[in-house]
Amino acid sequence: MTAYVIGHLRPAAHHDDIVRYIELIQDTLDPFDGRFLVHGAEVEVIEGAWPGGVVIIGFPDLAAAHDWYDSPAYQEILPLRTDHIEGDVIFVEGVAPEYDAKRTAAHIKAQAQASA
Fold it and tell me: Out of 15, 47, 59, 86, which could bridge 10 as a Cys pair, Cβ 3.0 to 4.6 Å?
């Protein structure tokens, strides 16, 4: 199942280390079939607040995402970002192509009725 690494990164002053991180990151993704889906795009906030930007990287599965993040190559460059940009990073698994929200709603209703 496709997995995503999502970063909510707060604005920061320019620093050469950040540019270097961006120059190097793709080489750390390639061995794990990781690819940027969102990077550097303008964020349009339609509900709530979202200070900063968003990065989304897709991987074939959660194992590949974890293997990338834990890899020596990525760990070596990670401080170039984390020393200069505050943010939150999550891993999340996507849904299957046949996912139907109506089935999820029915399941939630059934669980609520069973526990009532």
Answer: 86
Beta bridge mates, 6: 56, 90
Residues with Cβ within 8 Å of 110's Cβ and at least 6 positions away in sequence, in order, are none
According to DSSP, residue 1 is labeled -
pLDDT digit string (tens) for 17-52?
999 999 999 999 999 999 999 998 999 999 999 999
Q: pLDDT-derived band of residue 53, with 50, 70 and 90 as boundaries?
A: very high
Q: What is the pTM of this model?
A: 0.90
Dihedral sign, Cα of residue 26, residue 32, residue 35, residue 38: negative
Distances (CA, A) of 105 to 13, 73, 99, 116: 44, 42, 12, 17
